[in-house]
From TrEMBL:
This is D-aminopeptidase.
Length: 274
């Protein structure tokens, strides 16, 4: 059995503000250590429960945050960017399940460090379904027939996951107070929780169905301002709303929609503010 792990940073216990998740700031190295420990709790338990292969995709910012010298020795790590499929790079039909660790809520919802890819996105949709990083990544997994078995993060992230994926196991390592504060488990207690939840998720894997994406999906992104929408609209095949900062793209499948999202959000980040 193969397990795929996508690990972000904002949903790790104790990481509550940008000083922990921005490589230029003073708490970042602490965040790296705690993030690597949380990954190891899940990886080690997966091997104990019979997994033969665990692939970990570093999915935060420049995607080189995990300390490979401290990672479980049997794990394989996908590190660095640019990756054609970003947070789900390397995911394919060979995996029995996926785990999303350190995840956060989408931009329009409350949650610790909530956002969707960039801070200029207000809402994102596949057809009429509002999604964030969690939902989009789960759709890509579903494209390959891979169920998302475990989601770890704050309590609001757990709620978002449970709304999207019936039967998913969630691990709440901190509870939302505000976007930059939380009631956090200590790393020791979060480790205990993650090990227990990984065992549960793997034992219950037959009860979780892949989140199958719609055929020929329409991707819609609502940006924070019209300038960002104008930049995103430079991508061929997009349409821009004349009266709101919404850009749409008709995709042939969820993989094309995902890469369109990556291009559109990268372009939108070029917007200058006076």
């Amino acid at each position: 059995m193969k397990l795929y792990i996508s690990i972000d940073m904002e949903g790790i216990t104790g990481l509550v503000d940008p000083t922990f998740v921005d490589s230029r700031q003073y708490n970042y190295n602490r965040g790296q250590h705690i993030m690597t420990d949380e990954a190891n709790h899940v990886i080690g338990t997966a091997f104990e429960q019979g997994c033969k292969e665990v692939v970990v995709n570093d999915s935060h910012s420049k995607m080189n945050n995990l300390l490979i010298e401290r990672l479980h020795p049997e794990a394989q790590l996908i590190s660095g960017d640019v990756k054609p499929f970003s947070m789900v790079q390397g995911l394919d039909a060979s995996f029995a399940g996926a785990a999303f660790l350190g995840y956060h809520t989408r931009a329009a919802r409350k949650g610790v460090l909530s956002h969707t890819m960039i801070f200029g996105v207000r809402n994102m949709y596949i057809n009429d379904t509002a999604i964030g990083e969690l939902g989009f990544n789960a759709f890509v997994a579903g494209h390959y027939g891979v169920p998302v078995l475990l989601v770890a993060g704050d309590d609001e992230t757990a709620r978002e996951a449970e709304e999207l994926i019936p039967g998913v196991t969630t691990a709440v390592v901190k509870k939302y107070i505000s976007r930059t504060s939380a009631l956090c488990l200590t790393p020791e207690k979060s480790g205990e929780l993650l090990r227990a939840k990984t065992k549960k998720a793997l034992a219950n894997r037959a009860d979780v169905k892949p989140l199958v994406p719609p055929a020929n999906p329409v991707l819609s992104i609502e940006f924070a301002n019209y300038g960002q929408a104008e930049w995103a609209h430079l991508m061929p095949g997009t349409a821009i709303d004349a009266n709101s900062p919404v850009v749409t793209f008709q995709a042939k499948n969820i993989l094309e929609a995902y890469q369109a999202m990556l291009v559109m959000t990268e372009l939108a980040m070029r917007t200058a503010f006076c």
